Amino acid sequence: MADNAGSTAAARPRALFAWCLYDWANSGFPTVISTFVFSAYFTKAVAATEVEGTAYWGWAASASGLAIALASPVLGAVADRTGRRKPWIVVFSVLCIAATAVLWFTRPDPAYVALGLVAFTVANFAFETGGVFYNAMLPDLAPPSMIGRISGWGWGLGYMGGLTCLAIALFGLVQPEQPPFGLDKADAEHVRATALLVAGWFAVFILPFLVLTPDRPRAPGDFAAAVRDGLATLWGTLRRIRSHANILRYLVAHMVYTDGLNTLFAFGGIYAAGTFGMSFEELILFGIALNVTAGAGAAAFAWIDDAIGPRRTILIALAGLTILGFVLLIVEAKLWFWVFALPLGLFMGPAQSASRSLMARLAPAHLRAEMFGLYALSGKATAFVGPALLGWATLAFDSQRAGMATVLVFFLAGAVLLLPVRERGV
Hints:
By secondary structure, the protein is mostly helical. It has helices at 6-10, 13-26, 28-36, 38-46, 50-82, 86-102, 113-136, 138-141, 147-174, 189-205, 207-212, 223-239, 245-276, 280-308, 310-330, 334-362, 368-380, 385-397, 400-418. The longest helix is centred in the N-terminal third of the chain and has 33 residues, at 50-82.
């Protein structure tokens, strides 16, 4: 497929802003559901014990990660042949919104463990898979000299969206002595309603992206032919993967350090609640503060990405995450947890946004969605390993600290594997 060369010129500032706004729209899910509120609610109030709930949540994250790893390259290859990205984004966004809304029915009773885990698994799969096609639009829309900035600004908006959604959850639902809409605290309805907030947030704020951001034109031919051609192209790419040796090196490195990032995001709130005794209100306040630093880091490092390159930006971010992460494993007081956890956010956003911009720079124009599918595969191929290893270590040592310590291994190994990767033109 020929590159859609005209798409960059057609991407006016409002179209680029609307593209970034998709990050704002969907970031309530990882922030409120996966990390700070619903995951902690599940482990503390739904599961029989916190240790058991942590293990169950980790296994659900592993199951969705495995499904993402298997589906993303295939769907990306098919999307490259059909041309358009936005229809795929709509399908998976709607699925994520619906499954997130179902979490409302997960009551504080072990009888609802299965319902909560299934709904979360489906929602997480849809959230991540939609990102494959969203990320693949970046090099079509942004000028090459601004890919790092647009990617970073998108992540920054995402963190701000997560922050705003958390603030509404805190002050509008969780904290009031008398929750709105007659919500019953005894049945945890004020906490469960955060799932409805996230679903509605996503549904509303995706609209500017759908209306204002241009898509590639539909490729000629029917859908069945596109599926056959896409699968054939994917198979050919995998057979000739050694001809893309530099991309392969990057995908392996990305696979390892992203497993650490995903595990950190999935279990950060659980660790804060279990080890430092944070209440739901404190978790949301912590999430808001962390999103402030993460958004600031993503926005600031967006300029650094374009100035020194995304590979060096990722290495700086991984170094910061490793050092601060180690400190957070040894501190005992809640105050010191706050002191060292907030700067951690400065490096979370850059590690993600620079990873996206590096893939955008490396991917061949006619294989972008396929390459971002492989990028998603690399981000999820071992996604079951991180949560499973954390769950095993937590149970084996009866310690959440021991479980979280496994995250640092992924950061260090990923940085070492990233060192020989070369950016295009270097």
